[in-house]
Amino acid sequence: MNLFKLSQPTLLDRIWLSLRYPYDLVKAPMDAFLSIPALSFLIIPTFSSYTTSLNLMFFYLTWSTLILSNSPLKVEIIGTLAVRILFYILPSLGFLIFDSVLPSLAVNLKEHRDRALPLGNENEARKGRWWKIALISMGNVLLGVGLQASVELLFTEIFHIRSALKVTTAIPLPWGIAKDLFRGFLLREALTYILHYYVLHFQPSSLHDLHASWQHSISPPYALVANYDHPFPYIVHIFLPAYLPAIIFRFHLLTYHTYLAIVSLEETFAYSGYNALPNGFILGGIARRQERHLLGDGKGNYGCFGLADLLMGTSLGDDVLDDIRKESEKQKVSEKGQGKKTRGPGRQARR
Questions:
Q1: Which residues contact 25 (CB under 8 A, 6 or more apart)?
Q2: What is the crossing angle of helices 11-33 and 52-69, to 10°?
Q3: For residue 77, how many other CB atoms are within 10 A of its CB?
Q4: Distance in angstroms (rounded) separating the CA atoms of residues 313 and 319
Q5: How confident is the model at residue 218 (pLDDT cuts 50, 70, 90)?
Q6: Per residue in 259-280, is it b (16+ CB within 10 Å) or e — as a string?
Q7: CA 128, 272, 281: angle at the middle one, nearest 5?
Q8: Model-level pTM greater than 0.85?
Q9: Does 220 sit behind a cis peptide bond, omega within 30 degrees of 0 on the bond before it?
């Protein structure tokens, strides 16, 4: 009889390990993030005496420590969840709370005034739905993170091939990040148009009905509506167009998180309903096109940025070229105004 033979885990042990796994999944990366190297990366760059090279060195040490002390899957999933929380869920919740608690102030910032408020008086049906919309939107975000984890497990544990995303201690160069971001956003625009138009709007189907009765029931949009949809249409026209480019081009994890942060900020501001946005030329144009898509019963503006709609002739209202013309006109008016101000004192002096 072998007294040193390890016994197989019992059913209770397996249940306990299953219940503890989510905690372990979060705890290990958080310990690495809160370790001394990670804190040094956050604190030391705030002092101006350190050079850019030294800051990059600290970042490399932090990143290497994180990768070497945790499994790639844990780093990828916790990082993805953190990006979505920081750049989409928290800002959108902030906008939603502001719109709900201070509607008299928020209405002055809304493009469609009271109609765009989650508790607006013009639409009584909204008042009982805003919390459901918020929960479903955040639930879809978690669904997307879960699908990403499932893909990684499928690749590495079932097919025994390399991971979908590149998780290494090496840091991508700025040119490589810029190149991946450029082609990633172009492919996302094309995939969003194709899947959104041909799967959800081209002809009647069960997915079309779900999409129309869920996301298209909220118009004009407000915070958190970007990811509000039935889970099946959400996967088709939001998750897949955003995630597939990262797999096809096999983004480095840092590049993917940068890409996902930009996507999250775009969703946050484009569906906020505000008429004053950080970048009126880009985000303003995206927001107007998304609003017209929802207000126009899905008869156009199927892409993210409007480029695919411009090429395919499905733009509703102003297209990308119109935005460029208007922005150039604004710049000319601004330059003329500055020119008059600079010439004014000189003329008065000559008089």
A1: 74, 77, 78
A2: 170
A3: 19
A4: 10
A5: confident
A6: bbbebbbbbbbbbbbbbebeee
A7: 160
A8: no
A9: yes
